[in-house]
Design goal:
128 residues
């Protein structure tokens, strides 16, 4: 599972929740948000032989995934608590960068790192 970028546990949804009026984004709103994030990534990697955050190597991760102290502390704590690998560290940073792009945020904030960590810890339930 360490080679898979995103791990998610998807619990069953009650019919009542599916049939009700949701407050989330519509499919067309989400599509526009993704298009804007992809445009940001295209611009970021212009002139390089890549188009998305997922393609970044360690040098580009250091360049484009800089963290402030709060974000760095959060990631360090997760690495220690969950025993995450170096590969997981890189994937968390790339996912956090993508989450920030979806929000059109030039900086990766602790909230982006926290969400990315959640997508990388599912396998830890089965290892511990």
């Amino acid at each position: 599972m360490d080679r898979i970028d995103i791990h998610m546990d998807v619990p069953p949804v009650r019919y009542r929740d599916l049939a009700g009026e949701g407050e989330g984004l519509s499919s067309s709103e989400m599509f526009e948000r993704v298009k804007r994030a992809r445009a940001l990534q295209e611009k970021r990697f212009r002139g390089m032989k890549m188009h998305t955050n997922a393609e970044m190597n360690s040098r580009l991760i250091r360049r484009f995934c800089r963290l402030d102290q709060d974000s760095s502390d959060l990631l360090e704590g997760a690495m220690e608590r969950f025993g995450l690998s170096a590969r997981a560290h890189s994937r968390i940073l790339k996912i956090a960068r993508t989450i920030a792009d979806l929000e059109q945020s030039p900086e990766i904030r602790a909230s982006h790192v926290g969400e990315a960590i959640q997508y990388r810890t599912l396998d830890r339930r089965f290892l511990g």
